[in-house]
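Usage

Read records sequentially. Each one opens with the input sequence:
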Amino acid sequence: MNGKSQGNLKSRRAGRTLLLIALLAGALALPFLVSNYRVFQFNMVLVYAIVLLGLNILTGYNGQISLGHGAFYAIGAYVAAILMDHFGWPYWATLPVAGTVCFVFGFLFGLPALRLRGHYLALATFALAVAMPQMLRYKHVEQWTGGVQGIVIVKPDAPFGLKVTPDQWLYLFTLAVLVVMFVIGWNLLRGRVGRALVAIRDHPVAAEAMGVHIALYKTLAFGISALFTGVAGALGAIVVQFVAPESFTPGLSINFLVGIVIGGVASISGAFYGALFIQFVPNFADQISKAAPWAIYGVFLLAFVYLMPTGVAGFVRLAWMRMRSVQRRKSPDLQHRSM
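and closes with the structure output:
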């Protein structure tokens, strides 16, 4: 690599670092610039972004389609609610427990899923999403789950006497968790595990010939994906302050899959775009038409899929590459004119 290429690489890395710092600074300032309701909405965007990153690890990077991640989200939410309501745990201590429990459930569910692929796997995971609300209402677990009444969670106050509202503090806390989870996910996908997952997705026979343990990595993908979703479910329960079986319908799992398709399959940044879509577009559609909000939502969905077939992340990446290409074309012309 010559000096010019190294300089370009360093400048690109510096630009990305500055962009990330600017985005993080904007995210930190956001809860102090909008109303409490908007803070709640953006808080849910952060929660959904963690879910979509976890689902993308499984579906985007490993090629296993899941329509059941709403069930893992429910498990994480109920673990946090039960620990806080029945045992008095602090809200922050419930997150690793929720993630661990969901990792175990996801890993165990991934074992029988090894024999399924494609639409058969999608149907099997969808069955899990359909069964979850009924399981939460089962009479022998009502004493823990609250049955149809659910569990009410007390919103935590800001610690250390910080002069922020509970909603602002929860947003900042969720943002900190999101940064940690995304750093973990980025390092995971850019390392050996990520390369193995992509190899299994694209060329399973070649991956196995190269010594990749396909069964282990596919079940690990399920477990890790469920772990991310469980942490997000715990955060979602704390933010909403309530869990009930009706909050975790099969439609929630479908929304998650819609989120990764709209945001960009096999894209880390696509989790943010997908989370913004599933949080704000239904509300926007409802504001446009109270009579037929889902019809408006369908129009938006079709428009995004048609105009951005590689997702919002792919569209942004393509637009950025074209802009840089135009700049490179103009630079020689400007240099030639100045000579």
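Summary fields computed downstream for this record:
- Residues 59 and 65 are 5 Å apart (CA to CA).
- The chain has one domain: 36-307.
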